[in-house]
Design a protein that fits this description.
The protein is an alpha/beta fold. Strands 1, 2, 3, 4, 5, 6, 7 and 8 form an eight-stranded mixed sheet that branches. Strands 10-11-12-9-13 form a five-stranded parallel sheet, with helices on both faces. GO terms for molecular function: adenylate cyclase activity; ATP binding.
């Protein structure tokens, strides 16, 4: 890349650091220009390997190379791509050693972690951070000719490679020892599900799909023709798992069923590669001589009685070239004709070799959305004219196959909440009654019912002790995106054009739910059709209703996707965007919910003072509406000032958490003794909480000092509270005296502040109490008069709960 100014991003990357040893010795007897030629040859080949595997050459430094996988574009298997590149680089170096009679060796270290992807002073983009340092340290302790990786790489790529645990190693510049693994070699490619090597969770909600597949297999066997089924769904929805479970059941219920599973791999180039893998397995090519295999193909084609000697010869020659590729030196002048002949040959051989055993077959093409163009064309060719053999083709793909005929579709849906309970029970070994429903809601919100996402997130939480038991619930806060899902989730975002990518990153900053006009105001430009395009990409969806009047509300498909997109933003970007969102939402806030949202963004934009004020304001509005749980949450977010402590205690009282409210006030009351007015207010609230616990005498003691306050509002409130407690103790005469004293003070205050809402509320409460006293004394006329006065006052300030 040239000098450029890119948008900095925080990225989850795999870093490869390699250093060639032996150049110093070469330089002693070779001309410097010859050494330069060798270095150029090696590094040119290294660049080709790295880039073909989806990596980015960060830099060449002397005789060392640094490569990055996961920036500027992430793949779901970046750790695997890095290890494959390392293996291929070691192989290339051996070939060059043999060719030039040299003795060069390479040490390679690979690590995965978070890093900053940025351009310094407009230079070529690079990654920075501890992930790079660890890769370099691994290289420095690696033995020549070997590849050392970190524990994180081993976890992410363990299903693709064999590793040897080399134990913990202390390295320079790090306080903690590194757990090191050596790469031994690559495992045989197989389906994504089976490579994982273990079934961790029960197979749920796919009974209807299994029955449909059984019906297709029955039809294929009874009619002797191939059937094609597309198993469609997003990454992690369970396509591979469904195929595996169906095969296990089919082998028990149907005689002579044989299965082949092939995996489309973008890192394994070659025309018709999955198809050729199936031919190799059915013909047992690895166990037979080349000439024997070719003779067997000729015989099988001949036995069908469908083809002439010329056709058999042509087909055999084509299959020979596909099974045993070699440099032919021929030039094809009519490539379209040659391709048609290959399709015909493959179909003919398919029919012939799958007819020889008189059995039935299930062929699984896993990850078909990654298949090479030739393989896709071949399957399309077969669907147009199905082979006359009992084969059930299962095509597992994230995409539609719109150009194909004669193909049934099974589209997998997310799992339900009930199934999630079963998965949680299995992973955490708990009973359903020991699982907090909020925990299940949290997982559903994060994963939208995707079984693989569910499983990985649950294991992530379990492995890191991020849960509490009895009942099972989340402990701690933060962004929970397992490393195993980072690539899958970000890969699609990375493929978006820059304008779309910017929009979705800003939307992720707003939250799982966001609004079109708010987003446009934050972006300071219109989004045009971008949101519609993001919706078509399956990343977001439009909500039927909006929390902000006159705006259109959207939501991310699931919270994990939002969090992964959000994680791309640098800390500075996040803070700037959050502040802007806070300003926009504050200007539009018409209710406590949007006000809370604005405060949240100010907080994450490091505008702590603004955030605290808005949280408190949202809490006050919610309290007045009787939304006490929400109000308590707002006050908790606002901070721990003495006034907020008082408001929290009042809210706890309204939620009937009397003991908790009392304890909260007692913890803080001594710290505000010098602030007399606030101290008295604490005392009044404490008395109210004690009264609710029927601790009447203690409550009266707490009121003693407050009843002597020089502030009219505090004194009237203390007198009223005293009257109320005496009423609860059935001391009606004393209660009436104190209530009237309180009323006198309030009426004097109202002469000055005629329409103050709080004073009117307190006067209405005192009237209510006096009415109740008269009621208990049997003075119904006075009681009715005071009840009527109270009702009138509450109606005046629209306090409906008190009116009732």
């Amino acid at each position: 890349m040239e000098r450029t100014n890119i948008v900095p991003e925080r990225r989850f990357v795999t870093v490869l650091f390699g250093d060639i040893k032996g150049f110093t010795t070469l330089s002693e007897y070779l001309d410097p220009e010859d050494v330069e030629d060798i270095i150029n040859e090696i590094f040119t080949l290294f660049r080709k390997i790295i880039e073909e595997n989806g990596g980015y050459v960060d830099k060449f430094i002397g005789d060392a190379v640094m490569a990055v996988f996961g920036a500027p574009r992430m793949h779901e298997d970046d750790a695997r791509r890095a290890v494959i590149s390392a293996i291929e680089m070691q192989e290339v170096l051996k070939e060059i050693n043999n060719k030039r009679n040299m003795n060069l060796f390479m040490r390679i270290g690979i690590n995965t972690g978070n890093a900053l992807w940025s351009s310094i002073a407009g230079e070529k983009p690079t990654v920075m951070g501890d992930a790079v340092n660890v890769a370099q340290r691994l290289e420095s302790i690696c033995e020549p000719g070997k590849i050392f990786v970190s524990e994180k790489v081993e976890q992410l790529a363990g299903k693709y490679f064999y590793f040897k645990d080399r134990g913990e190693v202390k390295v320079k510049g790090r306080s903690e020892a590194l757990k090191v693994f050596e790469v031994l070699g690559e495992k045989t490619p197989f389906s994504e599900f089976l490579i994982r090597g273990r079934i961790k969770t029960p197979f749920l909600e796919r009974e209807k799909e299994i029955e449909k597949l059984k019906e297709h297999l029955k039809e294929s066997i009874s009619e002797g023709n191939a059937r094609f089924v597309l198993i469609k769904g997003e990454a992690g929805i369970g396509k591979s798992r469904l195929s595996y479970e169906f095969i296990e059941k089919a082998k028990k219920e149907f005689s002579q069923v044989k299965e082949f599973i092939v995996h489309s791999d973008p890192l394994r180039s070659g025309a018709f590669l999955p198809v050729i893998q199936i031919l190799r397995m059915q013909l047992e090519v690895a166990l037979k001589e080349h000439s024997y295999v070719i003779k067997e193909i000729e015989d099988l084609l001949s036995k069908t009685g469908k083809y002439s000697h010329t056709e058999i010869s042509t087909f055999t020659k084509i299959i020979d070239e596909l099974l045993y590729p070699r440099e032919s030196g021929r030039e094809f002048h009519d490539e379209a004709r040659i391709f048609r002949e290959r399709l015909s040959a493959l179909k003919a051989v398919f029919e012939a070799i799958f007819s020889k055993d008189f059995g039935s077959y299930i062929l699984v093409f896993d990850d078909f959305h990654r298949a090479d163009v030739d393989t896709r064309k071949f399957i399309e060719y077969l669907t147009a004219s199905p082979p006359e053999v009992p084969i059930l083709f299962l095509i597992a793909s994230r995409e539609d196959l719109e150009s194909m005929d004669n193909i049934s579709i099974i589209e997998l849906r997310p799992l339900s909440k009930l199934s999630l309970f079963q998965i949680v029970k299995t992973i955490f070994d708990v009973e359903q009654e020991d699982i907090h429903e909020e925990f299940v809601d949290f997982i559903i919100n994060k994963t939208a019912g995707n079984p693989y996402y569910m499983e990985e997130l649950l294991l992530y939480l379990k492995d890191r002790d991020l849960v509490q038991y009895n009942p099972l619930r989340i402990s701690g806060e933060g962004i929970f995106v397992p490393e195993t899902l980072q690539g899958i989730l970000v890969e699609k975002v990375d493929t978006l054009p820059q304008d779309m990518k910017k929009v979705i990153k800003y939307a992720a900053c707003i939250g799982k739910v966001f609004w079109k006009k708010v987003l446009e105001e934050v972006l300071e430009k219109e989004t045009g059709n971008i949101l519609t395009e993001l919706e078509l990409e399956g990343l977001i969806f439009r909500e039927p209703h909006s929390a902000i009047e006159g705006d259109i509300e959207y939501a991310f498909k699931h919270e994990l996707l939002r969090e992964s997109t959000y994680s791309l933003l640098t800390r500075r970007e996040r803070e700037t965007i959050h502040r802007k969102i806070g300003e926009v939402l504050e200007s539009r806030a018409k209710n406590e919910s949007i006000l809370f949202n604005a405060a949240y963004h100010y907080k994450h934009g490091r505008e702590e003072e603004k955030a605290s004020k808005l949280f408190e304001k949202a809490g006050d509005i919610a309290f007045d509406k009787g939304y006490f749980s929400f109000a308590l949450n707002c006050y908790e977010c606002a901070g721990r000032s003495p006034v907020l402590i008082l408001k929290k205690a009042h809210t706890l009282e309204n939620l009937s958490f009397y003991k908790e409210g009392e304890e909260l006030l007692r913890q803080h009351i001594e710290f505000i003794r010098e602030r007399e007015d606030l101290y008295f207010q604490y005392k009044i609230r404490l008395a109210s909480l004690l009264e609710k616990q029927a601790k009447f005498d203690e409550a009266l003691e707490e009121l003693e000092e407050a009843c002597t306050s020089h502030r009219a509002d505090i004194k009237s409130e203390a007198l009223y509270k005293r009257a109320w407690i005496l009423f609860k103790k059935a001391k009606y005469k004393e209660s009436l005296e104190w209530a009237k004293s309180s009323l006198t003070i309030i009426e004097k205050e109202l002469e000055v502040r005629t329409y103050e809402k709080e004073l009117i509320r307190r006067k209405g409460s005192v009237y209510n109490l006096i009415a109740s006293i008269y009621h208990r004394q049997g003075n119904y006329k006075e009681a009715l008069e005071h009840y009527t006065n109270a009702k009138s006052l509450f109606e005046k300030i629209n306090r409906k709960s008190s009116v009732a």
